[in-house]
């Protein structure tokens, strides 16, 4: 989708037809400077008109000079309220300019203010009133030394040129202000959206870290609990077995601390952005996980029906590994002496299935559990496009079964062609 540039020609009419900006309650330093400049310009323009019209005798019916100067002075003073009532002030000064020459400067400033702060329709109406009053003054008080129609024609030309120049300048200033406001609004929206994306990314990263900490540390600490429990209930075991169990406890504790250090390291703010991520376990590491559980005293029957574990895609392979890891941890918690069955099956182009079963027993190891592990597994499966089923079966077993979509080479190639 093409993004329109700020200087696109079609943007100018839209800016001119946009509603006027909200009025400021207080004048800023810039507003005071502009108001003073406008007042000075109106006074100078009025003085110039007074000099031009003072040459020779005034036309018949022309107001006295004192009254003309008084009207012009009041018009210049009224410019201080031009921000509050620009349309009313511009029309009033335009009507007064039909009998006073010195108020013309204030009328021009008022017309410029309307062109800056109001829509084009209002500006056009005020400009027509200003043009009409200019023609009325030229027709009512022509120069006696010149031809009447020449004076009226020159007055009409001057009024049109001056009014058109003022309106064009005011519309340009208005369009520029509206453009700046729109760009500022876009920048604020973009900054807000960026902050929202950052917050969402942080939330997702924290959720991912929480899942990793639960999956990794729950497995390690459950191994520690099993071996420590064995030493507690068998104080008279042979020294060789005690030394072996103590070695396993030491190695598991060391590995748990290492895993915790690596996971917590992600939360450090001063971590370099180009630091490579720690390699995550995959389905190819399942034999190592099974052997580790067996060394902890578990009875695990592992059946791999896949020809090549390395052919499984990395994403679903990691989810499969975490599923088995969490299921074995739960089995150690709730069925410490039961036989656990792990079956890995599937094929490319279909789905990868992981099924872990263990008998329901009344014994418990005493290891606390919150039940959030299965919730995390269900979320992993959902994010991978699969599903997770868990619960007791009619055969008196507890089953955890996850199904993850496994695209084959042809499916991946077709998806790449579609994305291209």
UniProtKB/TrEMBL annotation:
Its EC number is 2.7.13.3. It catalyses: ATP + protein L-histidine = ADP + protein N-phospho-L-histidine. The chain crosses the membrane at residues 32-52, 64-81, 93-116, 122-140, 152-172. Gene3D superfamilies: 1.20.5.1930, Histidine kinase-like ATPase, C-terminal domain. GO terms for molecular function: kinase activity. Residues 29-177 form the DUF7134 domain. Keywords: ATP-binding, Kinase, Membrane, Nucleotide-binding, Phosphoprotein, Transferase, Transmembrane, Transmembrane helix, Two-component regulatory system. It is an enzyme of class 2 (transferase). This is histidine kinase. It comes from Actinoallomurus vinaceus.
């Amino acid at each position: 989708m093409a993004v329109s540039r700020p200087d696109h020609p079609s943007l100018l009419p839209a800016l001119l037809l946009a509603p006027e900006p909200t009025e400021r309650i207080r004048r800023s330093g810039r507003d005071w400077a502009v108001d003073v400049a406008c007042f000075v310009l109106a006074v100078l323009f009025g003085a110039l008109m007074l000099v031009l019209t003072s040459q020779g005798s005034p036309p018949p019916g022309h107001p006295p000079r004192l009254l003309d100067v008084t009207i012009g002075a009041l018009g210049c003073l009224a410019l201080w309220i031009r921000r509050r009532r620009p349309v009313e002030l511009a029309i009033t000064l335009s009507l007064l300019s039909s009998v006073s020459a010195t108020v013309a400067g204030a009328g021009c400033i008022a017309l410029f203010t309307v062109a800056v702060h109001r829509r084009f329709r209002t500006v056009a109406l005020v400009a027509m009133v200003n043009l009409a009053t200019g023609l009325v003054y030229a027709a009512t008080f022509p120069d006696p030394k010149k031809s009447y129609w020449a004076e009226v024609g020159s007055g009409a030309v001057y009024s049109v040129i001056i009014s058109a120049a003022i309106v064009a300048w005011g519309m340009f200033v208005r369009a520029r202000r509206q453009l700046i406001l729109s760009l500022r609004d876009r920048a604020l929206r973009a900054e807000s959206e960026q902050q929202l994306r950052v917050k969402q990314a942080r939330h997702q990263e924290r959720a991912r870290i929480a899942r990793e900490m639960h999956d990794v540390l729950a497995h390690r600490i459950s191994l520690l609990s099993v071996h420590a429990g064995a030493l507690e209930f068998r104080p008279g075991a042979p020294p060789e077995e005690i030394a072996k169990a103590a070695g396993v406890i030491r190695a598991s504790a060391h590995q748990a601390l290492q895993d915790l250090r690596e996971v917590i390291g992600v939360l450090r703010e001063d971590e370099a952005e180009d630091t490579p991520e720690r390699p995550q376990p995959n389905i190819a590491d399942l034999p190592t996980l099974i052997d580790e559980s067996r060394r902890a005293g578990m009875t695990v029957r592992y059946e791999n029906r896949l020809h090549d574990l390395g052919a499984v895609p990395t994403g679903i392979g990691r989810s499969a590994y975490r599923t088995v890891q969490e299921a074995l941890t739960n089995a150690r918690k709730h069925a410490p002496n039961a036989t656990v069955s792990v079956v890995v099956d599937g094929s490319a182009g279909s789905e990868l299935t992981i099924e872990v079963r263990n008998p329901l027993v009344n014994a418990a190891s005493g290891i606390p559990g919150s039940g959030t592990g299965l919730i995390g597994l269900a979320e992993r499966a959902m994010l991978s496009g699969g599903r997770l089923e868990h619960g007791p079966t009619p055969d008196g077993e507890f089953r955890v079964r996850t199904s993850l979509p496994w695209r084959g080479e042809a499916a991946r190639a077709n998806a790449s062609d579609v994305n291209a």
